[in-house]
Amino acid sequence: MFGKKTIRDIEVEGKIVLVRADYNVPLDSKGNDDQRMISSDFRIRAELPTLRYLLEHGARRVIIISHLGRPDGRDEKLSLSLVAERLAELLPGVPVDFIDETTGAEVAATVDDLAQGGILLLENLRFAAGEKTNSTDFAREIVESTGAEIFVQDGFAVTHRAHASTDAITKLLPAVAGLLLEKEVTTLTKLMQNPDRPLAVMIGGAKVADKQPLIERFSSVADRILVGGKIAADGYATDDPKVYVAEDFDEDQAGAKLDIGPFATAKFVDTAKISRTVLWNGVLGRVEDPAYATASTLLAETLGENSEIESIICGGDTAGFVENLQAERPDLHFSLISTGGGAALALLSGEKLPGLENLLGHS
Length: 363
What we know:
The chain is an alpha/beta fold.
């Protein structure tokens, strides 16, 4: 059971609702650094159920705050204006406005002018120093400028950060979870506490330091743990009989191990086929080169084609890879493609999430 109140537990009709979304989307350049485009709108689409719920239940205005990238002060290349354009396309018939400020009189005036049932996206939170310093003053300025009456945390990917828009702001307004946050936390918590078995955990990626806590956490939970990717290629070893580490690899002409080999790939795929639940975190090879994306592609296809497997994909690179594959193969379906890389790992590793802790709980 999800232990926090959600937007279903409060009255939103007639209210100004402030939503913390995660619109930290990947951007590609259109031939030069001054023109950019969104290369994946997955995180924008993931937010739509919460926004639609609020509008359908009579929210007077919906104000969205988010960040994009890691700017050091204002950086127009990381403006959220592109996100607002895409959001308007995804919500036809809904007034969607954007303002290139986060606080102040212009924000207040824009909120007042916003149509009933409209959405306003504010500028990148990280243009302001107060966001990352968890400034209560900055959070209060957002609340006062927008006239917000309710705060909805739906940016799961940032809930492991104690920032003004995840922590300080929850002390200023009644704070509840959105539908995306609820889904992510519920699915990942069930994975730890009561998974459908057999449960297989498949680990890839490059950094042992990032993956070791996850391996240790699941050593007493999973039925099988399989390790591939660069960490296996670099010689990861363990005495745990539950853990299989890839033994063969596809190499380039210089002898660099860039993907797990046919034997290891078969182990991953065959284990997935006999599992009821699979958690996959970390690609198995250098997937940006199609020559070394074979193992990851075969595993993704196995999971996406089998509706009887509860498939949970987490980690930025893994989620991005699966999203790109889905663009080519719309028939592939996964139980959850997590929007949160670090947040998902933190939750699965048993850490407290600041962005979740202060939300209203069920009495």
